């Protein structure tokens, strides 16, 4: 297909006896935000590092715009931007100096405006060693996008960021997508993936568990739904009430929460029970979110 | 070229703010110079004849062999080279630029040593300045080549220190500074031929001071030149970007090819 920008085919990476990535295949199309979702140790960073050309696969192959990053990196360096999970820079390199240093290597003018937008207006001459972890992360992002790459690879970009910085980063990612930048995002954050990604894969212990759009991932094979109910009255507070198809229930704030693998059956039984008890129903929500789906998938995989 | 120039000035500026560079390359070298100047005046007055080239070779040993490899390991451990790689900084720049800045620092040290050695210790100036400068550049090329090769190959600071000391200590003892090479026992003489400092001093003595030497200067010139070319070539080819990634290009033992010219010389020179 013409619009495939990143192609990962049967990728395998082994460290000693441990298989970090096992037979993973997916492709990323032009202009989409593609998320690699999974908990720590799922193989997200290793997959990204193989795509970036920092690691050589032990099996399968990776191609970016038809080029192998392990052998054609010089042709790719201006086309891709990478934000590593941890940026390494010389301790006494200044923020503005870092921007100039890498932009000149990309043959582009330094983007000081980007540094200002990411909160470095007063810290342009601060040395790298004096920046906080969050600021180092923001600097890494600024350096990754300064040369306006066609493909942007982000490894857990919002981990550790405060809400304001996270929102700003999400806005930047959306803006880049509007300019047709292809974005590959690794994140352990389900909310972030469902908010930003057009498609995603879920990784678990180096294996690919499922792939698709957030809607497809939540719908395909999903059996577990979260039903949150709030009532005035004691009808749901008794612990011995059993509703059909409920696997787990808990009380959170003023809501009784049920996890059901047949929400239709459970909801009608709950409503019947509440009206029989003559309690007042305040709120009832059925959610099948990515977070529940992710919990379900990883729980199932852990049981295997 | 713009990127190379920018990288060079960044490296030079940060070098000046680096305490390890100031202590090792400047304080240690100049401290040793003052110590040797005052002590050798009485112990071995002949040393004063060659104190300028000797101290320049020692300053290059300290800056290029002892100090230059360390930051390579440190930067690799800190992930600096990973960041450089993904941003398109070529291995050639990473290898060549620190060598050039090291040369610049040794030039500064030489500018301090040459007039003060003449002023305080009565050391003679070189007879042929152009030859002196050319030998200086050739020596710097060979020494920094070995320094970056050690840095590019070493997996840890300990390995760097061991390789550096393996060259530095014998060079100081039998490299021709303290004991003239013709006074060395035959076995030690052969070992001295394996050291870059022996050949550097040989060239300085012959070409810029018109002194008699033990073997043809062409040998020393060829050895330093070929060793420098091999060292830089191997450092770029075998450059290790990343400590986390065990996959690397070429076997690090290929680095030993850089000392092949010295081994050939030890076999064929009398």
Structural class designation of chain B = mainly alpha
Nearest-integer average pLDDT of chain B = 89
Uncertain segments of chain B? none
Main pleated-sheet profile of chain A? 6 strands, mixed
Number of domains of chain B: 1
Termini separation of chain B: 45 Å
Task: Specify the helix fraction band of chain B.
Answer: over 70%
Using only C-alpha atoms, the radius of gyration of chain B works out to: 18 Å
Low-confidence stretches of chain A: none
Helices of chain A, by number, come to 10
What separation lies between the terminal Cα atoms of chain A?
Answer: 36 Å
Strand order of the largest sheet of chain A: 5-6-7-3-8-9
Q: Look at the structure and give the mean pLDDT of chain A.
A: 86
What does the model show?
The complex is a heterodimer of chains A (304) and B (270). Helix content of chain A is 33%, strand content 30%. Chain A is built from ten helices and 13 strands. Chain A has helices at residues 44-52, 73-76, 95-105, 112-117, 133-145, 163-178, 190-196, 214-219, 263-276, 290-303, and strands at 4-15, 18-29, 33-37, 59-64, 80-83, 151-155, 182-187, 199-204, 207-212, 225-232, 246-252, 255-260, 280-287. Chain A has a six-stranded mixed sheet with strand order 5-6-7-3-8-9, sandwiched between helices. Chain A is elongated. By secondary structure, chain B is mostly helical. Chain B has one domain. Chain B is built from twelve helices and no strands. Chain B has helices at 2-16, 19-43, 51-67, 69-77, 80-86, 91-121, 129-153, 157-174, 186-193, 196-209, 217-237, 260-268. The termini of chain B are far apart. The A-B interface holds A 49, 52-56, 73-74, 77-78, 80, 82, 84, 86-93, 97, 100-102, 104-107, 143 and B 2-3, 6-7, 10, 14, 17-18, 75, 78-83, 85-90, 241-242, 245, 247.
């Amino acid at each position: 297909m013409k619009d495939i920008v990143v192609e990962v085919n049967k990728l395998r990476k082994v460290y000693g006896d441990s298989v970090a990535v096992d037979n993973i295949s997916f492709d990323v199309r032009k202009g989409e935000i593609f998320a690699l979702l999974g908990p720590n140790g799922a193989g997200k960073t290793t997959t990204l590092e193989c795509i970036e050309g920092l690691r050589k696969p032990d099996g399968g192959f990776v191609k970016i715009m038809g080029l192998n990053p392990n052998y054609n990196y010089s042709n790719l360096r201006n086309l891709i931007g990478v934000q590593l999970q941890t940026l390494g820079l010389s301790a006494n390199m200044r923020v503005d100096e870092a921007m100039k240093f890498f932009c000149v290597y990309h043959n582009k003018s330094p983007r000081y405006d980007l540094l200002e937008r990411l909160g470095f207006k007063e810290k342009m001459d601060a040395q790298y060693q004096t920046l906080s972890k969050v600021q180092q992360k923001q600097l890494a992002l600024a350096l990754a996008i300064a040369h306006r790459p066609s493909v942007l690879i982000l490894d857990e970009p919002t981990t550790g960021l405060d809400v304001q910085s996270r929102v700003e980063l999400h806005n930047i990612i959306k803006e880049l997508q509007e300019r047709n930048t292809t974005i590959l995002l690794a994140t352990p954050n389900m909310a972030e993936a469902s908010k930003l990604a057009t498609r995603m894969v879920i990784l678990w212990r180096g294996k690919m568990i499922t792939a698709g759009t957030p809607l497809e991932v939540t719908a395909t094979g999903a059996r577990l739904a979260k039903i949150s109910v709030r009532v005035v009255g004691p009808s749901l507070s008794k612990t011995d009430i059993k509703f059909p198809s409920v696997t787990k229930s808990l009380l959170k704030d003023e809501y009784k929460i049920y996890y059901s693998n047949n929400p239709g059956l459970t909801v009608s039984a709950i409503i019947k029970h509440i009206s029989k008890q003559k309690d007042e129903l305040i709120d009832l929500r059925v959610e099948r979110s990515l977070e529940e789906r992710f919990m379900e998938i990883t729980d199932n995989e852990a049981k295997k | 070229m713009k990127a190379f120039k920018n990288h060079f000035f960044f490296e030079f500026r940060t070098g000046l703010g680096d305490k390890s560079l100031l202590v090792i390359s400047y304080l240690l070298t100049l401290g040793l110079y003052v110590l040797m100047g005052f002590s050798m005046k009485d112990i071995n007055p002949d040393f004063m004849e060659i104190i300028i080239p000797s101290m320049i070779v020692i300053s290059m040993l300290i800056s290029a062999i002892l100090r230059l490899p360390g930051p390579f390991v440190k930067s690799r451990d800190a992930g600096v080279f990973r960041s450089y790689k993904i941003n398109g900084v070529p291995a050639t720049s990473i290898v060549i630029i620190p060598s050039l800045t090291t040369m610049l620092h040794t030039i500064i040290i030489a500018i301090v040593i040459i007039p003060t050695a003449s002023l305080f210790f009565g050391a003679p100036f070189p007879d042929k300045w152009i030859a002196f400068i050319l030998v200086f550049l050739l020596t710097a090329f060979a020494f920094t080549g070995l320094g970056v090769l050690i840095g590019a190959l070493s997996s840890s600071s300990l390995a760097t220190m061991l390789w550096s000391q393996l060259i530095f200590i014998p060079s100081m003892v039998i490299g021709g500074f303290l004991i003239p090479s013709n006074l060395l026992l035959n076995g030690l003489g052969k070992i001295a031929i394996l050291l870059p400092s022996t050949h550097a001093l040989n060239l300085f003595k012959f070409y810029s001071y018109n002194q008699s030497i033990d073997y043809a200067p062409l040998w020393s010139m060829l050895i330093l030149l070929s060793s420098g070319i091999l060292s830089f070539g191997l450092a770029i080819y075998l450059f290790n970007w990343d400590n986390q990634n065990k996959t690397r290009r070429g076997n690090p033992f290929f680095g030993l090819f850089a000392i092949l010219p010295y081994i050939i010389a030890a076999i064929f020179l009398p």
